[in-house]
Amino acid sequence: MNAEFFAALEQLEKEKGIPVDYMLDRVCQALLTAYKKDNDGLKCDNVYVEPDMEEKTIHMYASKEVVDEAEDPLTEISLADAKKISPRVSLGDFVRVGIETKKFGRIAAQAAKQVIIQGIRESERGMAYNEYSSREHEILNATVFRVDPESGTIIVEVVSEGEKIETALAKSEQVPGEVLTEGQRIKVYVVEVRKGMHGPQILLSRTHPGLVKRLFELEVPEIHDGVVEIKSIAREAGNRTKIAVMTHDEKVDPIGACVGPRGSRVGSIVNELSGEKIDIIKYSENMADFVSAALSPADVISAVLLPDGKSCRVTVPDDQLSLAIGKEGQNARLAAKLTGCKIDIGSESAAKEQAAQADEDLLVEE
What DSSP line would sit under 276-324, residue for residue? Predict the structure, then answer.
C-alpha cells in the first residue's frame, strides 16, 4: 500500500464522488476477507487493519498472545519470537504482529477485489438513490428509450445532475391516448424513489396532478416567486385539468399571469401535455363563489352553500346545464375535486318550479 494507491482513491473520489474514507473502510474489509480466505475461513477477531492517511500507508496486524510454545500460530506467538518484536514482553502479554498482504493467495486476492468492487457499486447506488430521492415530487427531463409493444411500458432515460439512469414509465402512469416514440423528449413527474437491489427504483408519472403544478411553476415566474399561489388542482389526464390560483399582490391578475402574453405560458403547458385542456380558476375563500368559478366555462346564476358546509346547490341557465355538468359529468366532477365540495347542479327552470311548488305548499298550510 503506497502513495499511488491513495492517489487512486482520491481520483476515485473526484470522478465518482465516492469518499476516500468510505473506500478505505472497504479496503480494510477486503484485507480481512482475504486473510480469512487464506486461513480456511478463520474468524479474525484478533486481526485489524490500520490505514494512515498522512503517511499514505495501510498496515495489517494480528494481536497474538505470548506463550512458551505457540500451538496456534494464528493467535499465539512464542516468547522467543515475541522478544524479537519487543524485548520487554513477558508470558501472557499480547503483541501485534505485522501481516504481509503480498503473501495472500490468488483466491484471497480475488475475494478482496470483489469486496472493493462491491463497495464501489454500493456507494454509486447509494449516491444515485440520494440524488433521485431529493427530486421526489419534482420534474425530470426524460428521453423515450424503448417502447414495449406488449405491456405498453415505456423505458425512459432520465437525467439529474448529469447522471443518467434508465427506468420505466408504467402504462397506468401514461396519459390515455398519448403516443410516445423512441427518442422523444418528455417531462415526467417523480412520484416516489425506492431503494432497489440494482440501484434506485423511480416511480414516474405523466398523469399525476403534480406534473401540472410543476409545469406552471416552471412557466410562470409569479408562481415561482410566490406572488401567485396554486391552491388546488383537479386533473383527469388527457382530457381536462382545473387549477385554482390566488395572488398575494392586488396589482397582479393571477389568471392573466398563468395564461401569459397571448396565452404563451399556458399554451406551452398544453403542448407538453399533448393538448390537454386547462381551466384556470380564481380561488376564493367564499365557497359559493369558488364553486361558481370552478364550474367554468358554464355560467352560474346562483350558488348556495348548504348548512353542512360541504355541499353547494348551484343553479345555471337551462342552456348551460349540459355544459356545467360536462361530458359524462366530467366538468362537475373536476369542480367538486377542485373545491372539495359536493355540488348539486340544477337548471333555472327547475329551480323556478321548485320555488313555485314551495309557495303553493306554503299557501296550503296557511
Answer: -EEEEEE--SSHHHHHHHHTTTS--SEEEE-TTSSEEEEEE-GGGHHHH
C-alpha span between 41 and 43 (Å, rounded): 6
User: How far apart are alpha carbons 163 and 364 in whole angstroms?
Assistant: 78
C-alpha–C-alpha distance, residues 164 and 196, integer Å = 16
Bridge partner list, 142: 158, 186
Res. 102 pLDDT band, cuts 50 70 90: low
Give the whole-angstrom CA distance, residue 236 versus residue 254: 23
Per-residue b/e over 307-329, b at no fewer than 16 CB within 10 Å? eeeebbbbbbeeebbebbbbeee
**Distances in whole angstroms, Cα of residue 294 to Cα of each of 92, 203, 235, 331:** 86, 31, 13, 9
For the segment 278-328, what is each residue's pLDDT rounded down to a tens digit? Answer: 999 999 999 999 999 999 999 999 999 999 888 999 999 999 999 999 999
Rounded to whole angstroms, the Cα distance separating 332 from 338 reads 10
Q: Which pLDDT belongs to residue 273? A: 92
- Transcribe 134-195 into DSSP letters: TTTTSEEEEEEEEE-TTT--EEEEEEETTEEEEEEE-GGGSPTT----TT-EEEEEEEEEEE
- Nearest-angstrom CA–CA distance, 303 and 151: 46
Give the pLDDT confidence of 27-59 residue by residue, as tens digits.
788 788 777 777 776 666 788 888 888 877 788
- Model confidence, pTM: 0.67
Q: In 3D, which of 214, 234, 232 has the Cα closest to residue 224? A: 214
Q: C-alpha cell of 352? A: 323556478
- Helices (H) then strands (E): counts for the chain: 12, 15
With cell 482475504, the residue in question is 34
Give the separation between CA 324 and CA 334, rounded to whole angstroms: 11
